[in-house]
Design goal:
The structure is a homodimer. Chain A is mostly helical. Chain A contains 20 helices and 4 strands.
C-alpha cells in the first residue's frame, strides 16, 4: 500500500507536490453540474394545461432552451480549456489547488451572467458582467500557467525535458489569453456599440475552429502535410480537432452530467410531491394511497427518465470501454450528445403534466422521442468517427471484424431506431401514443439483454 | 496506450468482462447527490422576515433537518453496503451493470419514501413503501452476489482462489439479506402494530454496530484476541469498524457531496435571481445594476458558501493525500463531517435572508458558525483516529515527527478555531456580527497560504 501512495505523491515525494487526479475529478463534477444547471428554469416553466403546447413551446420555452444550450456550450468550452491546461500542468501543490478553486468559483457564475445577458440583450451592464467573468477566468488561468512554468517540476514530463520551455510558455499563454482579450474588448465596447460586443463574444467560440479550418485549407492547397503536422502534434496544448483529449476527463465529465440529469426529477419529487398531512386528512379521508395516486404521472416520468438516462450511460460506458483515445471531434460529438441528454428530464416532465390523450401530450411525447433520438445518434456518431481512424482510437475487439464489433453496433443503433420508430408510430396511431411510449420504456432494458443473446447465437451460427 | 487498456478490460480481455471502475464512479456520483437531496426542502422553507428565527427554527425547520440527517445516514448505509459488495465483485459484465443501475434507481427513491414515512408516521402505507424499497434493494444485491459467484472470474482475486467460496457466499448473503429481512417484517407489521415496525427499522441501522460492540466486549471478557481477529480480517465483507473501506470510493463519494453542496446555491440563483425585464423597466427605470443590487446578499451567500466548502474540500483533499487506508471508523467520521457540510448552504442562505442587524441575523450567523465548526472538527477527528493507528493508516510524512505533520495539524485546526472564535465574538460583539462573519470568509483563503509560509519559516528556525 505504501508504494503506490508514495508514487501518487508526485515526482518529489515529501515535497508539497501532488498528483492532480482528485482535483481534476472534483473540477469535472463541479463543471458538469454547472453545465446542466440552466435546464432547471426550462423544466420549471409552468404551462397552463389549457394552453396548446405547440404555441407555448414556441413562445415560452424557446428562449430558455436557447439559453440552456448556449450555457452548456460555453461551460464545455471552459471545461475543454481546463482539460488542456492540466494536460500541461500534471502535478499540483497547495497554491495551484487554491487558484483552481478560485477559477471554478468564477466559472460557476458564468451561467448566471449569461442568462442575465440573454434577458437584457440591450443593456450594456449584462454584457459587461459576462465579459468580466470570462476575463477573470482567463487571468487566473494565466497565473496558473505562469506559476507552473516558474516551478517546472509541476509540468508535463515532455515539456519539462524540452529545451524550448519558453516557446511553450508563450504559445500556451497566447492561446489562453486570446479569448479573454476578445472579452475585454467586448466589455469596453458594450458601453459604446453593443453589436460589436456580440460579434467579439461570438468570435471567442468560433475562433479556434476557424483557425483550424483555415490552416487545414491552406495545407490542402499548398500540399504540405506530413512535416508540418508532425511539428504541430508536439505542441500538446492547441485547439486542433484531431488531437486527443484526456479520455479519463471526458468520462468523468460525462458521468457527472449523466448523474445530475438522472437525479434532476427526483430532486423535484422529493421537494414538491410529499403531500401535506392536513390535506390528506381533509381531501382523501386519511388515505395516503389515494393522495399519492395523484402523483402517479410524476413517478412514471421519473422512472422513465432514469431508465433512459441510465441506459444511455450504459451505452456510453460500453463504447468508451473500447475507445483508446478521444479526439477533439469525438469530444465535440460527445458534448452535443450530452446537451440533448440534459433536455431529457424536461421532456419527461412535459409528458407527465398533461391530461391523457390531449393534443399536448402527443406533442410532448414526440419531443421526448426527438430528444432521445438526437442524444443517441450523436453517440453513434462518436463511434463512426472513431471507426474512421480505428487504428489509433479503438481497441482491436471493436474494430471492423473484431469480436465485439457487431454487438457494439447493435447496442448503439438500438436507441436511435426505437425512438425514431416510436415517433412515427405516434404520428400514425395518435390514439395509442401514450401506450406506445410506455411500452418503449419498459421493453428497452430487456432488449439490451436479448441483444446480447441474439448476437451470440448469430455469431455461433455463422461460424 | 493499448497495453493499459487491455489490462483495464479485466482478467479475460475480449470477453465481456470489464473493470468496475467507471460503474462505481457513476454510482458514487448518483449516491452523493441523493444523500444531499433532502437539504433542499430545508433550504427552501420560507420564513417570514418578521418571525423570530429562534422559534421558526424550532417549529418549522427541526423536523425537516431531522429528515435530512436521517436520509443522509440511510443513503450512506446503502452506499457502504454497495462499497462492500463491489469489494467482493471486482469485475463486471453487462448483466451486472444493468442490475446495478436497477439497484441505483430504487436507492434514489429511498429519500422520497423516507420523507413520506416521516410526514405520516401513523399511516401504515408510508412505512410499507419505505420497507418495500429496502427489501427490493436487498433482493437485487442478493441477485448480484448470486450472479457473481456463478461466474467466479468476476470475483475478488482472494475469494476466487479460496477453497471456501461457498462459505464466503453464504456469509455475504447473510449480511446482505439481514437488513431486508428485518424490513420485510417491518412491512408486514406496519398493518398490525406500527411501533414494532419502527423498532425493526431502527434495528437495521444499529444492528451491525451492535454485533460489533458485543463481539468486542466478549473478546475483552474472554481474553481471546489475536487468533480470532486475524481469522476475521480475512473475511473482507463484514461490518467491523476497523476494516478498511475502499479509499478511492470514500474520496469519490466525498467529492460528489462537496460538488453538489457547493453548487446548490447557484442552482437557486440561476433560477430565481434573473430579474424580469418588465420589472426592471418599471421599477428601476431600466437600470440593471440597481435591480441586481437587490440580490446582493444572495451573491454574498453564494461566494461565502462556495469558499467555505471549497476550502473544506481542500483540507479533506490534503488529508486524504496522506491517508493510505480508510478504516470504518474514519469512514463514519467522514460521513458525519459530510452531513454537516450538507447543511452549510442552508446556513448561508439564512444569513442572506434577513435584514441587517436584526436578532434573526445574529442567530443565523451563529448557526453557520456551529455547522462549520462541526464539519471541520469531524475532519480533525478523522486525522486523530488515523494517528491512533498511524503505522497502517498514514503516510510516513504525516505521522508524528513527519515532515508534513505540523502543517497538516495547522491546516485541520484552522477552521474549528476560526469558527469557534467567530461564534464567541458574535456573542460578545453582537453589533458587529455581520462584519466579523464576512471578515472571516475573506481572510481564511489567505490564512491557508500564510500558514504554509509560517510553518516553513518556523521549521527552518527550529533547525
Amino acid at each position: 500500500m505504501a508504494a503506490p501512495r508514495a508514487a501518487a505523491l508526485g515526482p518529489e515525494p515529501g515535497s508539497s507536490t501532488q498528483t492532480s487526479h482528485r482535483l481534476l475529478a472534483y473540477s469535472d463534477a463541479l463543471l458538469s453540474i454547472i453545465a446542466t444547471v440552466m435546464i432547471l428554469p426550462v423544466a420549471h416553466t409552468k404551462i397552463h394545461p389549457d394552453q396548446k403546447l405547440g404555441e407555448s413551446v414556441q413562445q415560452l420555452l424557446l428562449a430558455k432552451i436557447a439559453v440552456y444550450l448556449m450555457t452548456f456550450l460555453i461551460v464545455t468550452v471552459a471545461w475543454a480549456a481546463h482539460v488542456r491546461l492540466f494536460q500541461v500542468i500534471e502535478h499540483i501543490d497547495d497554491v495551484l489547488a487554491l487558484l483552481n478553486l478560485a477559477c471554478m468559483m468564477i466559472i460557476t457564475f458564468l451561467p448566471y451572467t449569461f442568462s442575465l445577458m440573454a434577458s437584457f440583450p440591450g443593456i450594456p451592464f449584462g454584457i459587461f458582467l459576462f465579459s468580466v467573468c470570462a476575463v477573470v477566468i482567463g487571468l487566473i488561468q494565466a497565473v496558473i500557467v505562469a506559476y507552473g512554468f516558474y516551478h517546472p517540476h509541476l509540468l508535463n514530463q515532455q515539456i519539462q525535458e524540452s529545451e524550448n520551455q519558453n516557446f511553450y510558455k508563450r504559445h500556451i499563454l497566447k492561446i489562453i489569453l486570446r479569448g479573454p482579450v476578445l472579452c475585454f474588448l467586448a466589455a469596453i465596447f458594450s458601453f459604446f456599440f453593443i453589436p460589436l460586443s456580440y460579434v467579439l463574444l461570438g468570435l471567442v467560440i468560433v475562433f479556434p475552429h476557424l483557425t483550424r479550418v483555415i490552416t487545414w485549407c491552406k495545407n490542402k492547397v499548398l500540399g504540405r502535410r506530413g512535416e508540418e503536422e508532425e511539428h504541430h502534434s508536439l505542441e500538446t496544448f492547441t485547439f486542433y480537432l484531431s488531437e486527443p483529449l484526456s479520455k479519463e476527463r471526458v468520462e468523468a465529465f460525462s458521468d457527472g452530467v449523466y448523474a445530475i440529469v438522472a437525479t434532476l426529477l427526483i430532486l423535484d419529487i422529493c421537494e414538491d410531491n410529499v403531500p401535506d398531512p392536513r390535506e390528506v386528512e381533509e381531501k382523501f379521508h386519511g388515505s395516503l394511497l389515494e393522495a399519492l395516486s395523484e402523483y402517479g404521472p410524476n413517478y412514471l416520468a421519473y422512472f422513465g427518465s432514469f431508465v433512459t438516462i441510465g441506459l444511455l450511460w450504459f451505452v456510453h460506458h460500453s463504447l468508451f470501454l473500447y475507445v483508446t483515445k478521444a479526439t477533439r471531434l469525438m469530444g465535440l460529438l460527445n458534448i452535443l450528445s450530452l446537451a440533448f441528454i440534459g433536455g431529457l428530464p424536461l421532456a419527461y416532465q412535459l409528458t407527465s403534466e398533461f391530461a391523457e390523450k390531449s393534443h399536448n401530450e402527443i406533442e410532448a411525447i414526440q419531443v421526448s422521442c426527438v430528444i432521445t433520438f438526437f442524444a443517441s445518434i450523436f453517440q453513434f456518431a462518436i463511434w463512426t468517427t472513431a471507426l474512421l481512424n480505428e487504428e489509433e482510437t479503438l481497441h482491436p475487439f471493436a474494430r471492423y471484424g473484431g469480436k465485439e464489433h457487431a454487438f457494439m453496433f447493435a447496442k448503439l443503433a438500438l436507441y436511435p431506431c426505437v425512438s425514431l420508430g416510436a415517433f412515427f408510430l405516434t404520428c400514425l396511431l395518435s390514439e395509442f401514443s401514450t401506450a406506445i411510449f410506455h411500452l418503449m420504456q419498459i421493453v428497452i432494458p430487456f432488449a439490451f439483454l436479448a441483444l446480447r443473446i441474439f448476437v451470440r447465437i448469430s455469431l455461433t451460427a455463422i461460424k
